[in-house]
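REQUEST ID: PR-0412
SUBMITTED BY: lab tech R.K.
PRIORITY: routine
TASK: structure prediction, single protein chain
INPUT:
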Amino acid sequence: MKADVALLLCLCLMSVACSSSGAIPSASPTLGTVPATVPNTVPPTVLPTLTSAPLPTSTPTTAPSPSATAFVIAALTRTAEPTRTLFNTATAAPPAIQLIYHGIKRPHGLAVAGDTLYVSSETDKGIYAIREGRITRFLPLNFPHDIIVNADDSLITPVFMENRVVKISKEGSITELAKGLAGPNGIARSRAGDIYVSNYRDGSVVKFREEDARLQTVATGLSGPAGLAYDDANRALYVAQYLGNSIVKLTDTGKVNIQPTGLGHFESLSLGANGNLKATAVSRGVGVVVNVRDSGEFAIVITTDLPDPLVAHFADGFMFFESPNDPLGRVFKAKLD
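STATUS: complete
OUTPUT:
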């Protein structure tokens, strides 16, 4: 026993001597060898470029099974649903659908300028510029939401986690336009230059001007205000209430609550050239696009298999749409009437 202890002590002293002399001791076989390089745990700032994948030439009429092709979206069809639709019930041909891009982690805000599509990513904390199916730029921001584009191709976006609104120049420089917000989410601008922003956390809407950062409160007491749309002809602001399951119309004379039966989780809004209000919502667990009247009457234009919430941007007879909860991170384009 004493001999064993002496031998162990001798081995330990030899090990210390080797270490102090500069020699590197061999790794213990029971612990394994030390890797030559330690993996970098910091996420890369430049994400890989992913090419877009086209949709099939024919739109499936039933939802695909889990083993079906990953980039197929099901049930993208015009639909009447006469039991709940109160106007425009004629069934039309399915809209032309194109898959623009896939692989963006939790996409949210969308905007289009010329041939460039801008998509904000909650997970990657920034805004991607996509042209011809490839990422051309990445603008880092902490949880940007909706986006508007200026004539000079600069962007204005609410930054949800930073409680401010910023302007990003074409060259990528960032200027703060407004601060002290509460989870800024949706954004819209009037022809007069007023910029409206919804505050998701405190249920309010404020406005300011690009040259004047002073905030003016437009509305309070809202329930999860999200997307905004401004009607210049009637001086009215429409507010999607994601948690309130309705759309609020704000005018100089008061507030009107528009609550289409059977729809909920309103997210994105847009006014067409003809004054028609389009909205994204959830019906029976999936995202839908609807035309809505102030009376609450509505017509479902497109039904998708995308999960709640459905986010969209409408421009020049087209709609770009996606869902932050789509695991494939897909962005689609649809032609509208």
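NOTES: The two ends are 93 Å apart (CA to CA).
REVIEWED BY: pending
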